[in-house]
Amino acid sequence: GQNIDQPTEMTATEGAIVQINCTYQTSGFNGLFWYQQHAGEAPTFLSYNVLDGLEEKGRFSSFLSRSKGYSYLLLKELQMKDSASYLCAVRDPAGGSYIPTFGRGTSLIVHP
Amino acid sequence: DVKVTQSSRYLVKRTGEKVFLECVQDMDHENMFWYRQDPGLGLRLIYFSYDVKMKEKGDIPEGYSVSREKKERFSLILESASTNQTSMYLCASSLGQGDLEDEQYFGPGTRLTVT
Fold first, then answer.
1. What average pLDDT values come out for chain A (112 residues) when binned by 10 residues?
2. Which of the 8 DSSP states describes residue B100?
3. Which of B1, B11, B2 has the alpha carbon at shortest distance from B92?
């Protein structure tokens, strides 16, 4: 089975840094994804981690520790437009499927 | 850019009606998916397909069926709509073909209300 946990909601101030955590318990592991979803819109791909360490993409970075079953998404220099839901998804091939399973998402509210 | 389109943004149907939700992708992707998204429950996989005429059940297939007659089109069918199927339905596609990353591209969603 799979268990993916994220905080339900976070708030942060414009210009600040925020870290959104994701922990998972899976039988196997073949990659972790982060998606961003603005209200009323489709999720869009942000990052993919399959090896331990930090992947940086502009203001957004994603970190993975496979031994700890842990990832975080780091957003720097927050902007109002970063207010969105952030979805963590883990791919576990142990059951014969390569389809990622999504966590329930973290709603981030950025205020002035 | 990959484009995934869904036939309707909003749909209102009556209990017992047969409902068709259509999804089309234009990037020759092998994999296509149907999810429903509900507050507090996140994205849940209903069905997916990794090739034409192939389909696999996801986590919550009960009450749904799918059809993939052409590579670019994946249809979700509610045989007899019920009020507990009121939800946001999201279609997605991914390249497949052994691509390691294989990120998903989502359509804009169809908000279905069953009364």
1. 88 98 92 96 95 95 97 98 97 80 96 96
2. S
3. B2
